[in-house]
Input
Amino acid sequence: MTGVASKILVAVDGSENSVRAFERALSLAKGTGAQVTAVLVIETPPTVYVESQKLLYQLLQNFRKESAKVLDRYEEIAEKQGMKVESAVMEGDPASHIIAYAEKGGFDMIVMGSRGLGKFKGIVLGSTSRKVLQNAKCPVLIVK
Ligand SMILES: Nc1ncnc2c1ncn2[C@@H]1O[C@H](COP(=O)(O)OP(=O)(O)OP(=O)(O)O)[C@@H](O)[C@H]1O
Ligand SMILES: [Mg+2]
Output
């Protein structure tokens, strides 16, 4: 299909920006009949900085529970609009996983926020969106 996105991947991290990106992905899908998949990547803490394996495991378990709740919120937004979305959770470096998942799944477009949960408010583009924009093979829509 040329010019029409049939598979849209939207990257979500719980931030307001990514909610706007998600809503934009839904409206694009409505116009094109595309399938929307929301992907959330749990940023695993660097193991070298965590002294105890037990603590690391507990941290991860909490992240996993939390991410399931976060994804539920996006699914609810979609349901309210009468839409059904797929979702996927991964663990590791967000940008690498988003790019690889989009390539493997044959996605036509990645939609994401310009900023996420990062603390430095001054910058225009966060490191995840910058990396995806730079390295993804498919079109990337950055939602402000
Ligand atoms: N862990 C993640 N899983 C899925 N998507 C993500 C994740 N982190 C960021 N994104 C996507 O990337 C967008 C931009 O977030 P990004 O992380 O680049 O900015 P930031 O958090 O403000 O900055 P930084 O992470 O560099 O401190 C988000 O709106 C979301 O769409
Ligand atoms: Mg971030």
Notes: The mean pLDDT is 93. The first strand starts at residue 7 and ends at 11. Strands lie at 7-11, 35-42, 86-91, 109-113, 140-143.
